Amino acid sequence: MRLVRIWFDKTGEAKYISHLDLMRCFTRAIRRARIPLWYTEGFNPHPYMQFSLPLSLGMQSVCESVDIRIEGEMSDEDMLSALKEVMPMGIDVKKITEPKFDPKYIAYGDFYITFKDVPDKAKMLKILSDVFAADRLIVEKLGKKGRHKVMKEINLKEHIRHSYVKETETDVIVNLILPAGSTTNINPSLFSDKIIEIYGENMAVDILRNRLLLENMKEFK
Amino acid sequence: MINRNVEKVLPLVQKPARYTGGELNSVVKDKDSVDLRYAFCFPDSYEIGMSHLGMKILYSIANEREDCWCERVFAPWVDMEEQMRKNNIPLFALESGDSIKDFDILGFTLQYELSYTNVLNMLDLAGIPVRASERTSLTPIVFAGGPCACNPEPMADFIDLFVLGEGEEVNNEILDLLKECKKSGASKKEFLVRASRIGGVYVPSLYDVEYNEDFTLKSVTATEGAPEKVTKRIISDLDKVYYPKTFIVPFIDVVHDRVVQEIFRGCIRGCRFCQAGFIYRPIREKQPDTINCQAKILCDVTGYDEISLSSLSTSDYTHLSELLDKMLSWTIDEKINVALPSLRVDNFSDELMEKLKKVRKSGLTFAPEAGTQRLRDAINKNVTEEEVLNTSRMSFEGGWTAVKLYFMLGLPTETFEDVAGIPALAQKVVDEYYKCENRVKGKGVNVNISVSTFVPKPFTPFQWDAQDTMETVIEKQNYLISCVPSKKIGVSYHHVDTSFMEAVFARGDRRLGNVIEQAWKNGCKFDGWDDQFKFETWLEAFRNCSVEPEFYANRKREYDEILPWDHLDFGVRKQFLINESEKARKSETTPHCRIKCAGCGTNKLNGGKCDALSQNMV
Ligand code: SF4
Known about the structure:
- The complex is a heterodimer.
- Chain A is of the alpha+beta class.
- In chain A, 23% of the residues lie in helices and 36% in strands.
- In chain A, strand 2 and strand 3 (60-70) form a beta hairpin.
- The two termini of chain A are 21 Å apart.
- Chain B is an alpha/beta fold.
- Chain B has three domains: 4-231, Rossmann fold, CATH 3.40.50; 258-360 and 588-618, 2-Layer Sandwich (Transcription Regulator spoIIAA); 363-511 and 547-569, Transcription Regulator spoIIAA.
- Helix content of chain B is 35%, strand content 14%.
- Chain B is built from 21 helices and 19 strands.
- Chain B has helices at residues 4-9, 46-49, 53-64, 78-86, 116-125, 167-184, 188-195, 276-279, 288-302, 320-331, 350-358, 373-378, 385-397, 416-435, 470-482, 496-506, 512-521, 535-544, 549-553, 574-585, 611-617; strands spanning 36-42, 68-74, 105-109, 141-145, 161-163, 201-202, 207-211, 217-222, 230-231, 259-262, 264-265, 284-285, 306-310, 337-339, 364-369, 402-409, 446-453, 489-493, 568-569.
- The N and C termini of chain B lie far apart (55 Å).
- Chain A binds chain B through residues 12-14, 16-18, 20-22, 24-25, 27-32, 39, 45, 57-58, 86, 88-90, 204, and chain B through 1-2, 7-8, 10-11, 16-17, 20-24, 249, 251-253, 300-305, 335.
- The structure holds iron/sulfur cluster.
- Residues 281-283, 593, 597-600, 602-603, 610, 612-613 of chain B line the site of iron/sulfur cluster (SF4).
C-alpha cells in the first residue's frame, strides 16, 4: 500500500462542481482508470481519499490535490495517463507525486481575483488603492458561535498577507494572499463582494486559487 | 458549453451544475456537420430528468446517427427561470449552450400529468409559441412520448405529434422523414400528414373531435387519410434492440445515479389499477447474457458502483437466479452493488433471499395496496396476508428492522372496513417482528405505511370508474389514522389535491387545453412539486374556462361511452378490460400470465408472441 498525491486543475465549467460532487467524480474516475485503490477492511469497505483543501463552489484553481491509497503495481506514469483519459472537461490531472507535507500544515492561499469587463477601470483602481492604503476593511462573515451561525464583522486588512493589482485591457486583477486551511479561512469572495459593493455596480468576477502555502510561505507540496 | 450570458447568472442560482453540461460521456458534435438538431426535453428538474432511463436510451440512439445531434434540455428551476427571464436568456441545450429556438425538432417525454405546464413553460422560455397551430413553419417540430401519451388529448393543442409506445425505432423514422422534408422544402402540413402514416405516430390536428351536449364525446374522425386507430409501437426483440454503450455521468447527485439494466418489459400480474401493467405489454424478456454484458460495459465506462435491475416486477423475471449468479461473479470483486427494486413479496424464495444478502440491503418495501383480502382480490393484487407476513419474517431474520408498506385509498369498491384493514395489517407485521427469535437484538421495528390516492387511468379495467371526491378521501385518511394502534407504525400521505388533478388530466380531453394554458399563464409550473403546486390557481383556470374538473375525475363512465383515447390502440382489448372490471365488482381474481393467459390481446402486437405465454407452454 502506498500514498500518492494527484495534482489537478479545476477550471472552466468544472468550477461549478461542488466539493461533495468532486469527491464522487474522483471516485468514479479512479474506478474508470482501473487504479488499484486500497479499501478499508470490514463490512462496508471504502477507499481512502483526502483532498488537500476544499475549494468553494464557483472558484477555479490550478493547485488542487487529492491523496489516495493504492495497492498493487501501477506506476505513477501509468496512473497519470489512465486518469487523463477519463476525467471530465475542466478537471485536468497534471502530475502524481509522493506527498511531502501533510495538508494540515496549509496556512495560506494565493488567489487571483479578476474583475471582468470593468465599466470604469480608473474608478476601480482608485477604490483599490484607497482600500489598500486604509487600515481597516470591515466585512461581514458567517461564523459559528457555539452551535449557532451568526454574522461576524471582521477586518479583512488584518488578514491580507500580500496584495498586488494589475490591469489588462478590460479587466482589473488583484493578487491576494489570505489565510486558508484548517485554522483560519478567509474566502476571497468576501473581498471581491465588498469591492463590488463599494463600486456600486455588479460585474462578473473570476477567482482563481493559484498556490497553497505553508506557514513559512513555502509552497505546499 | 456555457455561453457568456448564462455564465453571468450562474453565481446567482442554486446548483449551477444543473445548467453547465460538460458531464462525462455527454455528446458534443460539430453543429455544421449535422442535418438535424434535436432537443430532448424533460419537463422537470435536471435531477429528475437525468435519472430517467428512457432519455438515456433515446439520446444515445439519436446521437448514433451522424446526421443528427441530440442534446438535453431540462426545466430550469424557478430561481434560474427568474434570472433567464430577467436577462433575456432563452432556453438552451446543455451540450452546445445554444438556444433551442432554431432547433429542428423538440421531443418531450411525458412521464406524469403534472408536468404538462412545464412543457408550455419550456416552449415559452425558448421563445417558441406554445400552441401547435401558431407554429406554422416546418421546424421546430414539437413531439412527445412517454406513458402519458396513451391519453395525449389534454396536450393536443400544444404538441404536433405524439409517439405511442416504445420509441427506439419510430423516433428514427420521424427523424428520417423530417430530414427529407427539410431538404425538399415541404410544408409542416405535408410533413405531419406523411408522419401520420408511420406506425405509432398520432397527429392530433388530423382528427376532428365532436362533443355531445353533456360534453361527452360524440365522435373522433380521422382526416387526410390518417389512420382511424393509431397502434402503439413495440420493440419485438430486446436482445437485438440498441442499448446505450455509455451513460452520461452527472456531477451533481441525481435521484437515480447508477447503471440501469432493463430485464424485461411488460408485467404478468394484471393488477387492475396499474396502468404500467397494461400499457407496456406484451411481456418481452431480455436474456441474462445480454443484460450482464451490457451492465459490465456500462460500469467500465461510467465508473458507477451500482447496477439497478429495472422492470415492473423484478422477481417475475424467469432467469433472475441465473442472472444474479452471472453478475455476482464479477461485481463482488469490483465492489459493485446490484440493486433489485420492485421485488414482490410472494415469490421470494429462501434461495433468492440468500443471494439478496450478497446484494445491497436497501430498505424493504412491500406493496399490498389494499388492507383486506377482499379488496386485494377486487384489484387483482394477488398477495395474501400470509405472504406479506412470511416475507416479513424472513427479512427480519435476515437482519432488516424497517419495513415500508404501500397502500392506496379510494380503490373501486372500497369500504371503511377495507380502510381499517390497512393499519391492522401493519400491526400484524409489527407482531411478526416480536415473534421472531432471530431478530436484531436491542432494536425496535419500524413499519411505515405510505398511502396514496387512487387515480383511475386509461387502458386499465378501472378506466370507467369515478375517483373518490377529495372530501371522501380525506374522511378515509382521518379514519385510517384513528385506527393506528401503535407508535411503531408511521403513516404518510400524498396530497389529495394533486391526485385529483392527476385524475382530471389522466382521462381528460381536448377541452383541457385552454385550462392548462391559462393555469400556466397564471403561474402554474412544477405542479408535481408540493412547494410549487398552486391548487387555487388551477381551480380558477377551470372556472374561467367553464370546465368542471369533477366531470373528468369523479364521474363514472358507461362502458359504451366514447373515451378520449378510444382511437388509440395499445393492444389491450376493450372487452378484456370490461371483463376484468366486472370481475372486480365480484372480487374475483384473474391468475397471472404464467399460470394462464388472460387474453389481454397485446400479444397481437408482437405477431402473437408473448414471453409469458412461451414460458407457459414449456
Ligand atoms: S397476451 Fe396473455 S400472457 Fe401475454 S400479457 Fe396478455 S394476458 Fe398475459
